[in-house]
Amino acid sequence: MSMSDSLLRIEDLRTVFRSSNGDIAAVDGVTLEVPRGKTLGIVGESGCGKSMLSLSIMGLVPRPGRIAQGRVLLEEQDLASLSPAGMRAVRGAEIAMIFQEPMTSLNPVHSIGDQLTEAMRAHDAKASKAELKERAIEALRRVRIPSPERRFSEYPHQLSGGMRQRVMIAMALSCKPRLLIADEPTTALDVTVQAQILDLLRDLQAETGMSVILITHDLGVVAEMADEVAVMYAGRVVERGTAKDIFEDPQHPYTIGLLGSIPRIEEDRDRLLSIDGSVPPPFAFPKGCRFNPRCPFAIRACTEIDPPLRELSPGHRAACIRAPVELALDIAA
Amino acid sequence: MKEPALLEAIGVAKHYPVKKGLLFARQVGAVRAVDGVSFALHRGETLALVGESGCGKSTTARLVMRLIEPSSGDVIFKGENVTNVGGAKLRALRRHLQIVFQDPYASLNPRLTVADAIAEPMTVHGIGDAASRRERVQELLRLTGLRPFHADRYPHEFSGGQRQRIGIARALAVEPEVVVCDEPVSALDVSIQAQVVNLLGDLQQRLGLSYLFIAHDLAVVKHVADRVAVMYLGRIVEVAAKHELFSNPRHPYTRALLAAIPRPDPSRRGSVTPLGGDLPSPLAVPPGCRFHTRCPVAQAKCKELDPPLREIAPGHTAACHFAEDLPRFNAEADGGVAPVAQLRLAAYAAARAARAPAVVPAG
To answer: Residue limits of the ABC transporter domain (chain B) (predicted)?
Structure first.
C-alpha cells in the first residue's frame, strides 16, 4: 500500500506500563496503516494488546501507562505528540470510538437526547438548543432507530442492547469523524442483532467514506467486514495482509491455529484444532518468537531469534522464520 | 429412540408475576420466561438448547435441575416424576444432575483452593472420607487436563480456560449422569474454547455422560450436539438431529439464526441477512405465533393461531404453520476452507500431534 492511500499510519508504536521490574510493553513495536475509506480488522485474543493499541491511537491510555515510542500519524499530524487539549479537539471530531458494552457506555440518568447533544455541543459551542435537537434526531434516524423523536427523550434502560449500540454509533458519528474505531462493537449482542449492526456500519461507511478500525476476536466478523487484517499476538502484529490473504493463505502458525480453532457451520469435525497453552502475560513474554512455546513448528532458532515481519507476497507479511510451513517441512502442496 | 429418556421436561413453564402498588400489591401481568417447554434427553447424548438472550434457555435448564420451581409442568428423571420431591430425595437427584456455569471467573469461590472447591460437592453429598476425596481430586485434575500441584492453588492463579476445567472437575466430582453446560465456552477465547469443547467431548466418551448444552453460538453447537432444540421467547420452536437442523431447518427463526452467523470466509461476504425488528418483551408475548412480528413469511393465520410443535419428519419437530412449504435452505452447503489454508491446517494438526506427548494441554 502506498503512503497516500492511508489515512492513519502507526509507526513502531510502543505503549508501556511502569512496574517494579521495569517497563512492561502492552503494545510493542506495532506498525500499521489504515487505508482511506476502508476497514482494517485487528484480530487477537484477550491480552494481545489490541484494545491498548486503540486506546493509544485515541490518546486514552490509562495511567500509569504511556506511549514510550513511535508515532500515530493522522495524515501529517502526529497524535502521539499532541497536548491533552490538542488531542481533545481530535477526539470526536476526527476520530471517534465505540465500545463493546453499550450498557455501560451510556449514562443511565441522562436521556438519550441529552447525551447526544452534549457530545455535539462539545465540538460546536455556537449551535442553539433547537438546532442541536434537530441534529440529534437526524443522527438517530441515520442509524435507523425507529421513531427517533420519541427515543430522543427516552433513557438508556428503555432501549434494547442493539438500540443502545445504535445510539453509541450515532453519537460517535455525530461530528463526522474520518476514522471510527470500533472495539468489539457486537461482542455483547445476539447474533441476529449483530448482523443488523454490522449491516448498519457497512452502510454508514459507504455513505460517509470514513475509515474503520474494527477490533475483534471473532474471525467471522473480520471476514465479513475487513478489507485489511492484522493479527496480533502478545503485543505484536504477527501477520498482515488482505482479508483474502489471511483467510485463504494464512502464514503465521498462530493465524493457522486460530483458523483451526473456530467451529464452522459447514463442517463437522470430531475435534477442533486448538492451540496448546495460553497467551503469556506481558511480564512473561518468552525469548525469541513470542509464540514459540505454543507453536508446533517451533525449532531451536525460534527460541533465539525474534522474527521481524517479512513480506511473503505483495502486501502480505508474517513474523515467522518457518513460513511458509509447507516449504520448511517439505510437504508437497 | 427405544430406551426411555434419562431426563424429560413436559410442558414446563415459569411465569414471574409482575406486581403494582405498595401496600395492596396486585398482579398486573406476568413475565412468561419459559412458557410450556417439552423435551427429552437420552443417555449418552448431547442435546443443545439454543437461542438468543431472553429466550428462556438458562431458565429451562435451571427448572429441570430443580434450582427454581416451575409454575407448571413436570420434570421426569429416569421415569420418576421429580417435580415436587424435596429433602433427601432432592439432594439425591442433584447428585445426578450437575452444572457447569458460563463465567469461570464468578462461579468459583475465590477463598477455596482448587482441591477444596472440587471436593466440596463430595462433602455435601457425604461421599468418601478425607483421604479418598483427596485421591479423587487428583484423579479429576488429571481427567480435566490440570496438574497435581494445581490442587493447592487459588482460582485467581488460573486463566479462564483453566478455571473452566476446574468447574468441570467440580461438576464431575459426584459422578453425575447429566451435566448441564450453561454456555461453558462463551466467555473464553477461541483457541481456549476449542480446548474446552474437545475436553467435554472426551469426557463424554469416557464417562458416558449426557449433556444438556445451553448455547447461543450455533457454530459451537454444530461441533458438540447430537440433537438441537431452538428456543424463541420461552418456547421451543424446532427440534432435530444436528445434521438435519443445519441442512434442512424448517422454522423461519432457525433459518434467521443460521443466516445471521458471519462466516470466517471473505469470499462469502455479504451473505449475512439480518432479521428485522426487536425481540418482543416476555411481558407482552405476541398473540398467535410468537415469531410472527419478525417473521419474513408470516401470513394472516400466524397472527391468530399459535402453531404447536408438531412432527414434520421422524425426529424433526417444528412449530410453524408453513414448515413444509418453506423453500430449501442449507447452512452446511459450500464454503469451507481454501486449499492452501487447508494444507497448512493439516500441517499444523500433524506437527501438533507429533509433539503432543511432551505437552500438557491445560490452558
So the answer is: 18-258
